[in-house]
Design a protein that fits this description.
Structural class: alpha/beta
Largest sheet: 5 strands, parallel
Order of helices and strands: EHEEHHEEHHEEH
Strand order of the largest sheet: 2-1-3-4-5
Number of strands: 7
Radius of gyration: 23 Å
Oligomer: single chain
Length: 177
């Protein structure tokens, strides 16, 4: 079980990410970087939503410097892979919207002991590397991953297998005049 500090200003994403990590990890949530600065070393992993912090004007240059100087492995969430994510070792950038498999794979890579395959991951990765993408990744179309193929839709018939009651017919027909 890993101790994770989630820095996320949006309440709905706080809940969604926390629930996706529960019960395997203990998660503490903060709204901004400044409120968690002193306790970074107490955690096994930081998850920082850089895009949401930037959008809410909570991502100052000082906050970026704090993350860059931090030794704790960090998962940086970003909408635009070309944006200015901090650059350092033990930092992986995951593109939003977050896919559960990609998040779990990145977490496993950061929380597991350093292995030769995880040495190749670096802060230079603007998006998840091939190693962090699940093996059942969606098929590529023209060099880009199709977002729709990433989701598996289910038919309601698969969920509800009850047969509807037979329709009852009226016994007599009315004659119209």
């Amino acid at each position: 079980m890993g101790k994770i500090l989630l820095i996320e200003p949006q309440k709905i994403l706080q809940q969604a990410i926390s629930l996706s990590l529960f019960p395997e990890h203990e998660v503490r949530v903060e709204n901004d970087i400044a409120s968690g600065v002193g306790s970074f070393k107490d955690y096994d992993l930081l998850i920082v939503d850089g895009a949401a912090l930037r959008e809410s004007n909570r991502l100052s240059p000082e906050a970026v410097r704090v993350i860059q100087s931090c030794k704790t492995p960090t998962l940086w969430l970003e909408e635009d892979p070309t944006s200015q994510a901090p650059k350092r070792e033990k930092l992986v950038v995951v593109k939003k919207p977050i896919e559960k498999e990609t998040l779990q794979s990145a977490l496993a890579g950061l929380l597991s002991p350093r292995a030769p395959s995880s040495e190749r991951r670096s802060s230079a990765a603007a998006a998840p590397s091939k190693e962090s993408v699940p093996k059942a990744a969606p098929k590529k179309k023209g060099g880009e991953i199709s977002e729709q193929s990433a989701f598996q839709f289910i038919d309601l018939v698969d969920v509800v297998e009850e047969e509807s009651p037979p329709k009852q017919r009226k016994k007599g027909r009315r004659k119209s005049k």
